[in-house]
Design goal:
Low-confidence stretches: none
Structural class: alpha+beta
Number of domains: 3
CATH topology of the largest domain: Alpha-Beta Plaits
Family: Belongs to the pseudouridine synthase RsuA family.
Mean pLDDT: 90
Catalytic activity: uridine(516) in 16S rRNA = pseudouridine(516) in 16S rRNA
Protein name: Pseudouridine synthase
Helix content: 10-25%
Order of helices and strands: HHEEEEEHEEHEHEEHEEEH
CATH architecture of the largest domain: 2-Layer Sandwich
EC number: 5.4.99.-
CATH class of the largest domain: Alpha Beta
Distance between the termini: 21 Å
CATH superfamily of the largest domain: Alpha-L RNA-binding motif
Number of strands: 13
Shape: elongated
Pfam families: PseudoU_synth_2, S4
Largest sheet: 9 strands, mixed
Radius of gyration: 22 Å
Strand content: 25-35%
């Protein structure tokens, strides 16, 4: 972690005030005054005005993303999901994966970069479950054909490899559950487009073992449990 960020998160100072403190020589590392804000902090002893600072604990959040919000830190068109968090969390949290602006459901946020990378890595094989509403009803025959195609992998336009095997479960002729292992750009929408259908509603229910329960309303968030964090 950069020294200015470490100082900010350990003391509650804004990043700009933390940099001014560094320039004034108020911060020491292992007993030596340090003024470089971009210095990387690992296991050193950092003091501010003589007070020993502790390493900020990583935070992990499940947000019930509403439609109309973009999974980014800033945007000129749409409101960003970070605006749904308290002000003190907005400075350091990042989206661990993304959802389209019109997609709702499970969105994970963290300030732990390594955890976020593991979550997004296809090698991890972290299943993601979506509830998908379709424009065209599925007959039993068509549903069986699409289920087989998704299980084998689908060729998407512009991709050099087919999708990893996915599982389809039909709920109604126009509503299905789709479980995928990846997070390619607009993947769910492109998969159904590849089989001649159109997604009109998309809601992520689950990432790995992390499930969006009925107790979390749209726009609300909660911290992940230790077990949920360890599952990634």
């Amino acid at each position: 972690m950069r020294l200015d960020r470490f100082l900010s998160e350990s003391t509650g100072l804004t990043r700009s005030v933390a940099k001014k403190a560094l320039h004034r020589g108020e911060v020491t590392i292992d007993g030596e005054v340090v003024k470089k804000s971009d210095l990387q902090i690992k296991h050193q002893e950092v003091r501010f005005k003589g007070q020993l600072l502790s390493t900020p604990s990583a935070r992990y959040i499940l947000l019930h993303k509403p439609a109309g919000y973009i999974s980014a830190t800033q945007d000129d068109v749409h409101p960003c999901v970070l605006q749904l968090l308290p002000m003190e969390l907005r400075r350091s949290m990042q989206c661990a994966g993304r959802l389209d602006v019109d997609t709702t459901g499970v969105l994970l946020l963290t300030d732990d970069g390594q955890w976020s990378h593991r979550l997004r890595s296809p090698k991890k094989g972290c299943n993601k479950v979506y509830q998908v509403d379709l424009s065209d009803p599925l007959t039993d025959t068509l549903a069986a054909e699409i289920t087989e195609r998704f299980a084998q992998g689908v060729e998407l336009h512009g991709e050099d490899k087919p999708t990893l095997p996915a599982q389809l479960e039909v709920i109604t002729p126009t509503r299905v559950l789709l479980t995928i292992q990846e997070g390619k750009y607009h993947q769910v929408k492109r998969m159904f487009s590849a089989v001649g259908n159109h997604v009109v509603g998309l809601h992520r229910l689950q990432v790995g073992t992390i499930v969006l329960g009925d107790d979390l309303a749209v726009g609300e968030w909660r911290y992940l449990s230790a077990e949920e964090v360890a599952s990634i």
